[in-house]
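S1.2 Input.
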Amino acid sequence: MRGCMKWGAVAVIAALLVACGAAPSAPTPSPPPTAPVVTRTPAAVTATSVVAAVPSPTPAPRPIATSIPATVTPAPTARPEPTKSTKPAAVDVRSLGLGRPKADWERTYGQPDKNGAYANGAYWVTFSEDRVAHLERTWGDRDAKSKDFVMGALATLLPADKKLIGQVASSGGTPGELYRSEALAMAFTPAAFIGGEPGDFVILFRTQAGGRITSIVAAIGNNP
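S1.3 Output.
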């Protein structure tokens, strides 16, 4: 009975405390026991493990060889030598016959007839490099001339600078003379002087029984 009364008193007191806002605070729970801290000593690092731990150095990339073409300095272009003209320069051979330009000859004697003769058959001429290269002067048997007359008549038909070189004869035995002219050498190309040196020309004398001359042939070269 007394115990019941004791607990009843306690209940009343608690009710009062609650009513007055002084309720006892709930007991603070005890923190859970802290796990013991275990301190581990790190294992000794050996040299081998250190070496393994350090990464190998990355090799530097090799430079890529770039092919640079060699600079070639071109050799200086050789200038071509001036082409030498094969056409002789205009030369005055001071002749109204051998070596005379064709245009000048035909200005004096006109055009040839159908047989290729000029001045009514007095002259028969062939040209080389547009100049008189072969000239025949005919008088005929009835009007045959002495050598002195012939050489006088030829004075204007042959180069003024002619020089006698020697005696020649044709394959048929016609006598003649070999001359040389520097003016002719400059008026024609060397190839024009068949059988001789540049500037050479021959005169052949056709004669009759008494030695008088019926015609002459004057031609450049030495091919009688």
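S1.4 Remarks. The longest strand covers residues 131-138.
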